[in-house]
Amino acid sequence: MKYNITLVLTALLTFGSIRAEITLPHYITDNMIVQQNSTLKIKGKALPKSEVEITTGWSNKKLTAHTDNEGNFTATLGTPKAGGPYSIIFKDKDGVKTIENVLSGEVWLCSGQSNMEFPVQGWTTVMDYDQAVATAHHPDIRLLQVRKTTSFSPGEDVEINGGGWQICSSASMADFSAIAYFFARELADKLKVPVGVIDTTWGGTPAEAWTSAEALGAVPGFEAELADMKAADYQAEGIKTSYQSRMSQWMKAATAATESFDKGTLQSGKRWSKINVPGYWEQSVLPEFDGIVWLQKNIDIPADAAGKALKLNFRAIDDEDETYFNGVLVGKGSGYDTPRSYDVPATLVHAGANVITIKVSDFGGEGGIAPGIAEARIGSEARPLDGQWQYMVQSDFSQLPPKPIDPNGSSYPSVLYNAMLSPLSAMPVKGVLWYQGCANVGRDEQYAPLFKALINDWRKLWGADLPFYFVQLAGYLAPKPVQPDSKWAALRNSQAKALELDNTAMAVAIDLGNPVDIHPKNKQDVAHRLALIALNRDYGSDCVYEAPKCVRVERSGNGLKLKFDAPLHATTSAITGFIIAGKDGNFTTATPVKLDNHTLLLTSHAVDKPEYVRYNWADYPCGNLYGSTGLPVAPFANDK
Question: Based on the number of CB atoms within 10 Å of its own CB, is 364 exposed (0-12), middle (13-18) or buried (19 or more)?
C-alpha cells in the first residue's frame, strides 16, 4: 500500500511539473506568409488562466492575450505591408514559442478537384515539368498544402502536409498544385512582393462537399443528407446508419429487374448487342450511362489446358462486378481503380468454348472494364480477352431517384468545407482560385444555384467580399460538330452564371483540353489566365484578361448577325464552332462570314429562319475564335 501511495504521489508531482506548451493552429508555422495590411486572428492554447505575451518583428508593440480555464486564447495581429522576414514570439510564464522566417505579401486560396490538385510532378506531371521543377527556386514564394480530411461539423484546425508552410523549391513544389504554383510565380514576378498559395484540394469531389450545410439548405437536392445530419446531431455513427438504410432501399429498386438467364451459356436475342472490351462504355456504346450491365464472352480452351486452373485478370472494373465462369461465381470486386484477379478452379475449365459472364454495376462517372490488362492466364501463358464481347443493359440508374451519397467518402455534403476550409477562415487571404465541376457534370440545373451558394458561403465565412476567380471546364471526350445536348457544355454554362455575382471572373480553358484525358497537362496557360485576371482586377495592371464577348444577336435575312465587343481573330481562314437552329430547336452547323472585326453573319441551308445560336457548345468543341491577346472566346448560347 505504501508503495502504491508513493507511485501516485510521484505521478502527481511529475504531472504538476509538466509545462503547458504553447500550441498554435497547424497553419501557423515557420516560413509562413501573411496577407499584407490585414488582420490575422490566431487561436492558440497555453497555460490556463494566464497571460500570453506576443511580439512581432514588424511592430514594437507587445500584445497580451489571456487564456481561459482550458488554456484557450485568441490574439489579433495587424499585418504589415509586404516584406520580411519577421518572427512572431509567443511567451508565457512556462515558456516561449517562436515562429521564424515569416513574410508579408499576397496570399491566395486555391481549391477544387483534380485539375486544381494536379501536381507539377506527383501522381502525374504537367507539360514541360522537368523545366518547371529545375527552375523552381523562389524563396519569396511560400506553399501550404492542406491534408485530405473530412468532418461532419466545422473543425477548429486543419491537418497540414509537410509540417506546415514550405519555401518554394524544386523539392517542395513538385507535389503541389501546378496551377497554384504557376499563378504564384507569375504574381511574384510581376508584383515584386512575396506570394503565398494554399492548396486545399481533393480530386473527384463535387461542389456540395465544399459548401456548408447551412448554405446547402437553399439548394434543391440535398434534403435527405441534411436531414440525416441534423437528426444524428452531426455524429458519424448516426449519419452512416441512416445512409445504410437508404442505400439498402435504393439497391432493392436498382436490382428489381434482375435478369434470369443461364450464365454458363452465351446468350442471344434482341436485348444483346456488341461492345469492345476493355474500354469504358461511356466512350463507345453507352454514353453517359450509369447502371447495371451484363457482359459475356466465349474463350476457347485447348485440350491440353482442360482441367487446369486459371486466373482471370483485369486492370480494373468500374465500379463493382460479379464474375462467373461457365455459370459459376468465381469472384466479386469493387473499386473503380482496383485490379481484379479471380481464381477459376480446374473443375470448371474444359476444352472448347468456355463462357465468361460479368455483371458490372456503375454508380457514376465511367463504367465497364477499364482499359489495360484483360486476360485469362493458364500457368505462364496469358490468353487475351480483349476484343468484341456482348452486353445487355439490366438497369438504368437514371430512371431511379438519385443514389444516396456515401458519408464514408469525400463527396458527402459539407464534409470538406468543415474539415479543409472552415478552419482556415481566421487567416486572411487576398482571394480564391477555383477549378472544379467535372464531378457535377449531369447536374447543371442544380450546379448554377449551388456554385453561387458556395461563393457566397465562403465570403460569409471570411467576412469579406473575396475576389473569386474560377476556371471553366476544358474540352473533353470525343469531338462532335453538333451536340446541343452536351452535359459538359451545360455545366460550363452553369459555371458562367456565377459571373452574375460581383467580384467574380472566369478563366476560359475550353481550348486547353484533351479529348481522351480529363486532366490536360497544360496548366501553365490556365494559371496565366487566372493571373491576368488578378493582375488587372486586384493589382491595377492594364493587361487584358477577357476575350471578346457576343453582345448582340439579331436576325439578318436568313441568317443571324452577331456583334462582339472587341476585335475577333480566328486561327484559320474558316471560322468554326457555331451551330444554329430555328424555333424548333433542331441545331445544325452554321457557316460564319466575317463582316468586320466585330461582326459575324451565320447562315445554314438547313435553317431558313434561325433564332438560336450556340458557340463551342459540345463536350470537346472545335471553335477557333480568339481575342487580340490570344484568349479564347468563351462558349455561349443565346437560348441559355
Answer: middle
For residue 90, give the nearest of 69, 63, 68 by alpha carbon.
63
Per-residue burial over 149-166, b if 16 or more Cβ lie within 10 Å, else e, is ebbbebbebbebeeebbb
> How much is the pLDDT for 61?
87
Helix axes 178-191, 523-539, angle to 10 degrees: 40
Reported as a pLDDT band with limits 50, 70 and 90, residue 19 is low
Angle between helix 444-462 and 487-496 (nearest 10): 30
223 burial via Cβ count (<10 Å: 0-12, 13-18, 19+) = exposed
Q: Is 27 left (phi over 0), alpha (psi -120 to 50) or beta?
A: alpha
Of all residues in the chain, what percent are helix, strand and coil, respectively (each to 5)? Answer: 25, 35, 40
DSSP tag of 235: -
Specify the 3-state DSSP secondary structure of 338: coil
Q: Give CA–CA dist 269/261, Å, rounded.
A: 12
pLDDT digits (tens, 9 = 90+) for 200-229: 999 999 999 999 999 999 999 999 999 999
Judge contact between 144 and 164, C-beta under 8 A: yes
Query: What does the pLDDT look like over 421-460, one tens digit per residue?
Result: 999 999 999 999 999 999 999 899 999 999 999 999 999 9
Residue type, 551: V
Nearest residue to 602 (alpha-carbon basis) of 567, 544, 560: 560
Beta-bridge mates of residue 626: 569, 632
pLDDT single digits (tens) 516-568: 899 999 999 999 999 999 999 999 999 999 999 999 999 999 999 999 999 99
**Helix (H), strand (E), coil (C) string for 571-585:** CCCCCCCEEEECCCC
Backbone angles phi, psi at 232, to 5 degrees: -90, 5
- Give 581-623 pLDDT, tens digit per residue: 999 999 999 999 999 999 999 999 999 999 999 999 999 999 9
8 has a pLDDT exceeding 80: no
In angstroms, rounded to a whole number, what is the distance separating the alpha carbons of residues 624 and 578? Answer: 10
The three cell numbers locating residue 117:
490538385
Cα-trace Rg, the chain = 29
Cα 185 → chain centroid: 22
